[in-house]
Each structure stands twice: as structure tokens, then as C-alpha cells.
């Protein structure tokens, strides 16, 4: 069953926007960490949160009209994605000469380089990588997004080389399609292109084929289809025959070989989906999710106490989730999120939260309790807890609403930097989420404006934000 995000309510992605200011007002630019045909990638420091990020600097003079179209397509898709294994985009800038795309930073290099260094992977390590990749694809496919360029070069590692923290990048040639629509454009990287892509008649299962190629390479160190030219490569892929014979394959389990075969099935209607692949015995056997029991207990305790009835508080939390959480803050809770996300779709259902309680505390919660919890935490009204919703609702309150974060969030509303938030400023900040009438704006102001002067001071703002458990 497909799960679509609600268009109403407060989403972290509402705050992933083009920043009309100058880049250097918000970021300190650091050393070069990569370069390509269109520009460079540098480390940058976000002044407001003091966190390191990456800035991709793209020179317009080096780009064709089609290149710019692809870039804007990537921005449009990436800003709405909220998954622990998809690189997060924070915002973007542009001036007369350049585009600047701000994303989270991954310092461990590409999975491709790790494959070159290691030769091939153990089944344990390979399964951890594949589970995350398949979860990412399942999440995208449930939103009708087809990546179309899944390959080891588009999977980044963290500096600690923890295989449980990979990030999928480069959504430049991704496409959003209707559920029954077929795509008729041949595009991608030859080694990883599915046969139906060569034939220009395909859907999201082309990504599943690419994942199968990656799994084959992880376990053997060589690609399933290899040739001296693209034409010869195309012929081999269209035939769809590959070998799992030889010394390296003698040590690979039958379950692993079975999953590769299902991923690399020529006929798409018989090829396994990303969602079904996640429940394959090979994944289940090797990927029993590990998490810190104390961290999980604290997370569920905070989740049960989370309250955000006021619209301005909901918007503030969404803004903090989108722009102000550090990588460390988010990823400290990612293991708990992944452990609870048993079907690997990148979201938590009521049933998965109930099962999480059972797993952590040895007892479950009733339907009334879970419904009340979701009403408080599910800020976008989708019926599921997104990654960012889960993180902000399970964080320690003092960290979530630290003085520094609250001042940054207040500044987001306080457009004229007067030290007070007016009704017009609230309206301007919330209009990106939904349209509010003047009466509704006055009601929102009234929820926070304790002295009734029609404006919100920082102290009034701070009181309503930290009134979590009342």
C-alpha cells in the first residue's frame, strides 16, 4: 500500500528554501573537499548552529539550460526527502554567477572507493549496506520517486566507515512519476542500467536492478555484467545472464545468491520490489537491528510527553528539525528509529511504535495512548512519524529548546530584527505551510502574547516553547 505524505500541517521540508541573502552572511566557507564539471564542494560552517555542512558551488557559465533544469529538479525532490540514509539538504542560494547548495557533510568518501580498497565485503557488512539502500529505495518508491542512477559513487560513507550510516546522494536525474506511468528515457550509468531502461520502457524497479548489481559487486568484487564498450555492455544486460560460480562465490550463502537472483530478474513483473527485498531471509538473518536500550527508553519517555498544540510552536519545531539540529543530534537517535522501522519504509507507523514499546519496556500501550501520541507528534498529519518528527519528539527537551536554538528560531520569525514578532511576521513565516486568515493569525498571536500588546517578545516566545509537559 502506498503512503503519501499529507500536504497539510507542519513539515520540516517547508523550511528548505532558497535563501535570498548572501551566502557569507550565514556560512563561513572552508577547504575544498571535491570538484566536478560544474564546480566545487567545500566544507562550510553554519554560523547560527555552529555545525559543519557541505556547500556545492556550481558555476552557471559551465552549465547548459538542461544542466540547470536537472539541478532545480534535484533541489525540488531532495528538499522533501526525510530519511536517515538520504543526504539532507538544508537550503540553497544563488547569485548572478553561481548556485550554492547546502547539504549535510559526509567525510568518509564514496562506497566505490571502499569497494576498491576492500576487494569484496563480508555478508554481514554487505547486508547492512543493502538494507539501508533498499530502505532508501522503498521510501522513494512509495513517493513515486525513481532515482535512476543508483551506483556506489552515489553512496557516501561517514569518516568512521560505519556501514550503518551510508547516505544516498545525487538525485539530479531522478524523476517523479504517476503510479502506473512508464518512463521512456534511457539514462544512467551503463554498468548499473537495468535492461528495461535500455529499452526505454520502465518504472521504479530499475532502481532495484541497480541495487542488485551493487550487491553482486559487494560480495564478489566484480560486476555481474562487464564489457569493453557500452554497446557490448547493453547486449549482455539485455540477455540478463550472469554467473555466481568460482572461488569467491563458494563462500557466499545460498540466501545471498537467491536475493541477488531476485534483484537481477530480467522480467520486471517477476523482479522483487525494494519493500519485499527488505523482508528477504538474508536481510533478516544478518541485520537484527541493534540499539542502545537506555537511549531507546529515554526516547520513548520523551515521545510520550511531547506536546505542541500551538501552531507557532509546531512551526518552530519544524524549523528546528529542518535547520538547527546538528548531525550528531539526529544520528544519535537514528539507530532507535531504524530499529523501530521494521518494514524499512523510512517512516514509523502506530503499530511500529507500539511494537517498539514492547521491545524496549516489555509491554505495549493501548490504542487511546498511541492515538493521542500521534496527534501530538505527527506535525504534518500524514499518519506516520517521519524521521525528523521522531527525532525532535524524542530529544531531550533542554537540547531541543536550548537558548541558542530558540534565539535562532525567533530570528526566523522576526523578519525586521526588531526584537518582537508581529502578526504580519507570523503570517509571512507560516504562509509557506498553509494560508491563514487574519482571525487565525490573531488567534495564533494570542496563544503566545501574554501581555496582550499584539506582539510576541522573546521571553513570551520562550515560555510557550518550553511549556512541553503541562
Distinctive features:
single chain, cell membrane, globular, Transferase(Phosphotransferase), domain 1, alpha+beta, 23 helices, five-stranded antiparallel beta sheet, two-stranded antiparallel ribbon, Recoverin, domain 1, 470 residues, Phosphorylase Kinase, domain 1, 3 domains, 11% strand
Task: Explain what you see.
Keywords: ATP-binding, Calcium, Cell membrane, Cell projection, Cilium, Flagellum, Host cell membrane, Host membrane, Kinase, Lipoprotein, Membrane, Metal-binding, Myristate, Nucleotide-binding, Palmitate, Repeat, Serine/threonine-protein kinase, Transferase. This is Calcium-dependent protein kinase 1. 46% of the residues lie in helices and 11% in strands. With 470 residues, the protein is of the alpha+beta class. The chain folds into three domains: 12-103, Phosphorylase Kinase, domain 1 (2-Layer Sandwich); 111-286, Transferase(Phosphotransferase), domain 1; 293-466, Recoverin, domain 1, CATH 1.10.238.10. The strands form four sheets. Strands 1-2-3-5-4 form a five-stranded antiparallel β-sheet. Strands 6-9 form a two-stranded antiparallel ribbon. A two-stranded antiparallel sheet has the order 7-8. Helix 4 runs antiparallel to helix 6, helix 6 (205-220) runs antiparallel to helix 9 (254-263) and helix 13 (311-324) crosses helix 18 (387-394). It is globular and about 75 Å long. The chain starts with 22 loop residues before the first helix and ends with a helix.
Amino acid at each position: 500500500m502506498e503512503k503519501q505524505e499529507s500536504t497539510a500541517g507542519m513539515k520540516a521540508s517547508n523550511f528548505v528554501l532558497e535563501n535570498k541573502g548572501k551566502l557569507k552572511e550565514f556560512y563561513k566557507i572552508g577547504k575544498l573537499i571535491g570538484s566536478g564539471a560544474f564546480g566545487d564542494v567545500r566544507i562550510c560552517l553554519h554560523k547560527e548552529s555552529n555545525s559543519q555542512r557541505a556547500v556545492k558551488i556550481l558555476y552557471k557559465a559551465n552549465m547548459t539550460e538542461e544542466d540547470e533544469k536537472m539541478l532545480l529538479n534535484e533541489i525540488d525532490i531532495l528538499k522533501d526527502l526525510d530519511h536517515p540514509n538520504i543526504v539532507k539538504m538544508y537550503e540553497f542560494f544563488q547569485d548572478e554567477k553561481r548556485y550554492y547548495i547546502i547539504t549535510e557533510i559526509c567525510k568518509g568518501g564514496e562506497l566505490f572507493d571502499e569497494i576498491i580498497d576492500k576487494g569484496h565485503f563480508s555478508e554481514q557488512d554487505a547486508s547492512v549496506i543493502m538494507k539501508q539502500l533498499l530502505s532508501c529505495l522503498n521510501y522513494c518508491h512509495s513517493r513515486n520517486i525513481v532515482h535512476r542512477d543508483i551506483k556506489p559513487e552515489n553512496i557516501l560513507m561517514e569518516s568512521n566507515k560505519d556501514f550503518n550510516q551510508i547516505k544516498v546522494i545525487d538525485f539530479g536525474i531522478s524523476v517523479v512519476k504517476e503510479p502506473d506511468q512508464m518512463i521512456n528515457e534511457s539514462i544512467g550509468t551503463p554498468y548499473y542500467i537495468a535492461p528495461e531502461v535500455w529499452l526505454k520502457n520502465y518504472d521504479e524497479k530499475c532502481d532495484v536492478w541497480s541495487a542488485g548489481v551493487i550487491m553482486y559487486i559487494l560480495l564478489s568484487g566484480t560486476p555481474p555484467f562487464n564489457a569493453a564498450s557500452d554497446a557490448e555492455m547493453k547486449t549482455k544486460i539485455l540477455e540478463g545472464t550472469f554467473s555466481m560460480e568460482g572461488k569467491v562465490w563458494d563462500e557466499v550463502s545460498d540466501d545471498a545468491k537467491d536475493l541477488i537472483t531476485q534483484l537481477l530478474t530480467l522480467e520486471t513483473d517477476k523482479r522483487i520490489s525494494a519493500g519485499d527485498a527488505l523482508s528477504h531471509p538474508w536481510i533478516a538473518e544478518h541485520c537484527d537491528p541493534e540499539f542502545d536500550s537506555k537511549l531507546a527508553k529515554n526516547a520513548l519517555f520523551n515521545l510520550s510527553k511531547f506536546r505542541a498544540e500551538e501552531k507557532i510552536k509546531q512551526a518552530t519545531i519544524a524549523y528546528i528539525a529542518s535547520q538547527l539540529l546538528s548531525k550528531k543530534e539526529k544520528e544519535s537517535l537514528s539507530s532507535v528509529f531504524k530499529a523501530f522501522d521494521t518494514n524499512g519504509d523510512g517512516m514509523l507507523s502506530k503499530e511500529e511504535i507500539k511494537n517498539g514499546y514492547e521491545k524496549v519496556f516489555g509491554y505495549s500501550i493501548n490504542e487511546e495512548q498511541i492515538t493521542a501520541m500521534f496527534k501530538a507528534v505527527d506535525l504534518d498529519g500524514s499518519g506516520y512519524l517521519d524521521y525528523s518528527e521522531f527525532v525532535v519528539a524524542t530529544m531531550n527537551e533542554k537540547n531541543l529548546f536550548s537558548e541558542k536554538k530558540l534565539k535562532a528560531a525567533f530570528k526566523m520569525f522576526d523578519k525586521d530584527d526588531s526584537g518582537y514578532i508581529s502578526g504580519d511576521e507570523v503570517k509571512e513565516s507560516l504562509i509557506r505551510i498553509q494560508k491563514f486568515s487574519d482571525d487565525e493569525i490573531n488567534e495564533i498571536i494570542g496563544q503566545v502574547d501574554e501581555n496582550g500588546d499584539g506582539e510576541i517578545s522573546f521571553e513570551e516566545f520562550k515560555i510557550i516553547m518550553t511549556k512541553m509537559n503541562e
